[in-house]
Prior knowledge:
Layout: H1 7-12, H2 19-35, H3 42-67, H4 72-77, H5 79-97, H6 102-121, H7 135-156, H8 163-184, H9 189-213
Helix pairs in contact: 3-5, 3-7, 3-8, 5-6, 5-8, 6-8, 6-9, 7-8, 7-9, 8-9
Amino acid sequence: MKAPIDIDALLNETPRTDGASLERALASARGELALREPVRRWRTQAAWLMASSGGLAMGVAGVMLAGGALTGSALLERVPLLLLLLATSAVCAWGALSPRGHGLRRSGVGLAMACAATLVLARGSPSTTPSLPAWVCTVSHLAVGAAPLVVALWMLRGAAFQPLRALSAGLSVGTTGAFVGELACEQDWRHVASYHLFAWGLICVMALVLSRHLKPRSYAP
Length: 221
C-alpha cells in the first residue's frame, strides 16, 4: 500500500514552476500593461449607454418634428409614456454596468415589464388605416436599436458575463425602438404587443447571446 499523503507537507512544499511558462505569462502581462489603455469609470460608461439610447430616440423625435411627420400636440400627448421609457432605459443601463447593481438590475427588469404593459394598455384604437405591413415596425425598431446595442456590447465586455447584467443592457437598448414606435405608429394594442414588444424582446435575446460569446476585456464581477 502507498503511504498516506501528508497534507501539511504538501501545503508547505514550494510549488514547482516551469520557467518557460512563467516567462510567457510575464511577457503577456507586461504587454498588456504597456498598452496603457485608459480605464473609464463605470458611471461614465453607463452615461454613454443612456446617451446612445435616449439620445438617439430624442434625435429621431426631433427629425420627425422638423420633417412634419410629427406634430407638437401629438408629441405632448405622448410625453408621459416617453418619459417612462427614458426612465426605464436609464435604470436598466445604470444597473447593467454597476459593479454592485444586482438589486438595481432586478428593479430595472420589473420596471421594464411594467413599462411594456403600460405601452399596451395605453394604446387606443387606430385613427387611420395603416399603409405599411405590420412587420415594418419590428424591423425599424431593430434597426434603430442596432447602434445602441453595439455600444452596450462594448460596455459589457468590461466585466465577466452575467445573464442579468446582459438582460438589463438589452432592456435599456430596447427602449429606443419602443420610443420611436410611440411616435411613428398609431396601430392598436394588439399590434404593440405582437410587433413592438417582440422587437424589444428580440434585442434582449441578442444582447444575452452576443455578450455570452464575446471575449471580455476583464473578468471583474
